Amino acid sequence: MSGRTWKIIEALNWASSFLGTETNAPELLLAHLLSVDRTHLLLKLREDCPQDVMEQFQSLILRHKKGVPVQYLIGEERFYGRSFLVNEAVLIPRPETEELVAKVVEKINKRFCKEERITACDIGTGSGCIAITLALEIPNLSMTAIDISGKALSVARENAKRLGAHHVEFVHGNLLAPAIEKKQRYHIVVSNPPYIETEMIEKLDIGVRDYEPRLALDGGKDGLDFYRAIIEALPKVLKPQAIVGFEVGFGQSDDVMMLLRQQFPDAQIEKTYDINRKDRIVTAEIGF
What we know:
By secondary structure, the chain is an alpha/beta fold. 41% of the residues lie in helices and 21% in strands. It is built from twelve helices and eleven strands. The chain has helices at 8-19, 25-34, 38-43, 51-65, 70-74, 95-111, 129-137, 150-163, 177-181, 206-209, 225-233, 253-263; strands at residues 6-7, 48-49, 76-79, 82-85, 118-123, 141-147, 168-172, 186-191, 238-247, 268-273, 279-286. The strands form three sheets. A seven-stranded mixed sheet has the order 7-6-5-8-9-11-10, with helices on both faces. α8 links the parallel β6 (141-147) and β7 (168-172). The longest helix is centred in the middle third of the chain and has 17 residues, at 95-111. The radius of gyration is 21 Å and the shape is elongated.
């Protein structure tokens, strides 16, 4: 790649040809290296690409070709209109999870007064995208975010600091065990737990299978291990009137709804389909 000066458009065309697939990865990576957004990158297409940037760009494209997700190469991902730091210690935030947050926000606004102090818990917080977003969207919310991974919590804490989410407490522990130990109770419990069936892990896209944390993917033999454990513990941590929200894998909603119904026979339980018409969200309104 050295030996001559490349125009930005030439660099993008080389990367697209090298990757051999329809992807916006070259634009995202080069815009990141040039510290511009996509619009400004496109305005610079006929400008020279600095040699040091070209060398970094080539290196990133080579790594992406091997399967490293663009988000890890850039070190961030957009979620609910905000930029979250990500690395290989945390799952990359996804649009489906934005829909979970939107549904929980909708139910909070429906069930609770804006003057009421609400307590909430995010189980398996990862990058903190759910906990932090809820805390910023609902100012009267006090959020506890739990994760078993210390490395993930470091990322989440940094995201909270950068985004000004001051009412989020990050706790190291397994699922709801820290809350039970401290006898804490919540109005809201939300989680996007691991839900991929163990035997399906090896069939995932290489970027997910080889680079995203298995700890955040593997949901056991049928993908439901974490839902069972969380739902079994919920009576010990929920306030009399509470909302529970889960992201689920495609086709898992009926099973998760059944688990909730067994635990809370009188709850209002529903599933919500995402933008791709997949059953992606299960919620329960308890005690209302």
